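The instructor's notes for this session suggest beginning with a concrete chain rather than abstract definitions. Hand out the sequence below and ask the class to guess, before any prediction is shown, which regions might be ordered.
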Amino acid sequence: MSQEHIKTTILGAIENIKANPAGAKVVFRASTELGEGMHCTGKIRDFSAIDIDEPADLGGTDHGPNPVEVVLVALGTCQEIVYRAYAAVMGIQLESVTCDVRGHLDLRGLFGMDASIPPGFQKIMFETKVKSPASAEELAKLAHIVESHCPVLNTLQAPIEVVGSVTINDRPLVLEATA
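After discussion, reveal the predicted structure:
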């Protein structure tokens, strides 16, 4: 897909939102199902199912990335996509964009061994590498825009409302707040 096509598509979406602000509110969906052992499948739109599993040392069969690795991939790929989108709109040529992401997690939190340790990541670090013939000033402006508009980065950094429910044997279970 050409940079011009991406630019035209993005600018068209912006114009559509300006004309119909209610159209800016979108809902993305996914569904998942536990299979054998720790293996799960995830479905998004009409794509093939995504295999999610745990490594053998966490009880899985290692037939796919685990959920926290998927979070890291989501951050890296979101960075890359937002760089592509904004670079296209700004007329900046990109040669490459890569992102290395590391998440630090203490398994004592997951296994309930220490109540003071959260079960999720304590720290996520990423390094995005951009190669481009554009000027340092243009690339600095691009980086600033991406870092302030990347949806997955924002989701990980900002407290957001997450609401869930559990149904056991067709009966809703009332949950107390967990966080």
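Then share the key points. The longest helix spans residues 67-90. The chain has a mean pLDDT of 95.
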